């Protein structure tokens, strides 16, 4: 009896045809799903919105993987890796959804050919084509700052996807339904670490407070909606980020106070930057690492 190895499985997954070396090699994530935009919804808006959510997940996943082999303990290294994989799975579905709505054809720098849409969107867009927020693009800092950033990002994202379960777009609703369980774990895991650090030693408390003080300014444009978000929220498809602001503040305030940390001043709202493609150099550096191999060998096969 022939015992198939993992390599045999990968090679035969598509009839033995060569696979793009940087893709997953698995079935298209939205295969067999009706991906038409709901009635009355502009596909461009919906695709752009999926990019916003997908880019946040992709970029934060990349930041978290920077901790692999550097986490403070082995168990936490596994937890960070699993969190990054959860976010990567969300990113894949959301970028595939964006590609199904024609975003792929409108992006000026994408390679064409047999590359799956979600991979092309991840690897072949320039920084100003990404729609992630500064919160996820910022550099990690120390472990305490990373933990505070994960707490904030997971709390915001969980509040959004919880509402997206009722989206008029059935694809987005299904993605959100799965993501709720993952993000609940991410938020609670980060909250436990914040409590442990904030109410621990004098040094861990100092680092946790410094982390909160560094992360809070990144919320400046987080709750300011773009025109796309407003239109989709009005159509029952998306969520206006302003609608989750009070919930997020309540959760974060509760966790920090329980951790004996001072809640930093909430920054004044500003016009959205990351959502419109305006980023600092930190995203350029992150994408150089994320995209380097794929761009050096476009359409490579195994």
TrEMBL record:
Q: Name one GO cellular component term.
A: cytosol
Q: Name one Pfam family in it.
A: PaaA_PaaC
Q: Name one GO biological process term.
A: phenylacetate catabolic process
Superkingdom to which the source organism belongs: Bacteria
Q: Output this protein's name.
A: Ring-1,2-phenylacetyl-CoA epoxidase subunit PaaC
